[in-house]
Design brief:
Elements lengths: L8 E5 L7 H11 L3 E5 L2 H6 L2 H8 L2 E2 L7 H15 L3 E6 L5 H4 L9 H24 L3 E11 L13 H23 L2 E7 L13 H11 L7 H12 L10 E4 L10 H4 L7
Parallel strand pairs: 1-2, 1-4, 2-3, 4-5, 5-6, 6-7
Helix pairs in contact: 1-3, 1-9, 4-6, 6-7
């Protein structure tokens, strides 16, 4: 360990179980010397095993609906009280499509489901930063990171309206990141991670094929959840103080590939 986050305080959204990227980030943040609170929606807390993570990392769990301004305000107030000061880092690892869960095709969605998923997956990021910004709850050179996927830029048919949600999430990071940087010297970035077998990801139709295809396309192979956690820690640290407004691809090189020899072999002989 490098003590990259020694003395830093944070809030981590979205840890559900040990498969969650947020779970891995919490473990690594603890190892690097940070203290933090953990949060998820009340229903998610009942479904998951977050209390095990809290015990392991010495964190306090604060239930919060990330679509509720009242809940977010309470979360941030409680976190500053528990942690003894302003916040240095925040991870937004939240995403859910009701249309995907209900099997509604992208061409014929339930628009009430669309609105709900958009609120949870993207607008919640704006709401979190709204409260942090207006309360001046973050220290200078703090870091806010949200997790995304490159379906925001390219077509992945079965990713459904989550692709739209991620595109909006990335836009929020740039737009709010400008004001947060200008006014409070806080960084805001998104990490576009390889397809990763989490509870949320496994709900997408054909997700195994997603993962296998990306593995065959990427010169370095898919990035794992723990590797994503390592990258996130670097963005929380003081080593990246001037990195902001970026969508950072953490995908083994997949995002710059057109075709690979491994994939070409499926369509004919290659040398």
């Amino acid at each position: 360990m490098y003590n990259l986050l020694k003395g830093k305080k944070g809030i981590i959204f979205g840890a559900l179980n040990e498969d969650s990227i947020a779970w891995k980030v919490a473990e690594r943040a603890h190892e690097e010397g940070a203290i933090f609170t953990l949060t998820n929606a009340p229903i998610a807390l009942r479904m998951g095993t977050i209390n095990e993570l809290a015990k392991k990392t010495g964190a306090t769990v604060i239930p919060a609906d990330a679509t509720s301004m009242d809940d977010i305000t309470n979360l941030i107030d409680q976190s500053m009280e528990i942690l003894g000061g302003k916040i240095d880092f925040v991870l937004h690892s939240i995403g859910m499509s009701v249309n995907v869960r209900k099997g509604k095709h992208y061409t014929d969605p339930n628009y009430d489901f669309t609105t709900k998923g958009w609120d949870i997956s993207a607008v919640s990021f704006h709401k979190v930063m709204n409260v942090l910004y207006n309360k001046k709850a973050m220290n200078e050179w703090g870091s806010v990171v949200a997790l995304t996927y490159m379906a925001a830029q390219r077509v992945f048919p079965d990713y459904n309206d989550m692709a739209d949600n991620k595109a909006y999430l990335e836009s929020i990071a740039r737009s709010f990141g400008y004001f947060f940087g200008r006014d409070h010297k806080v960084r805001v970035n998104t990490i576009s991670q390889s397809p990763t077998m989490t509870t949320a990801g496994s709900g997408v139709k054909g997700f195994d094929a997603f993962i296998n295809y990306a593995e065959e396309m990427s010169p370095l192979g898919n990035a794992s959840a723990i590797e994503c956690a390592d990258y996130t820690i670097s963005l929380f640290s003081d080593l990246t103080k001037k990195v902001t407004l970026q969508n950072l691809f953490h995908d083994g090189g997949f995002s710059n590939m057109g075709i690979s020899t491994k994939v070409m072999r499926n369509f004919g002989d290659t040398e």
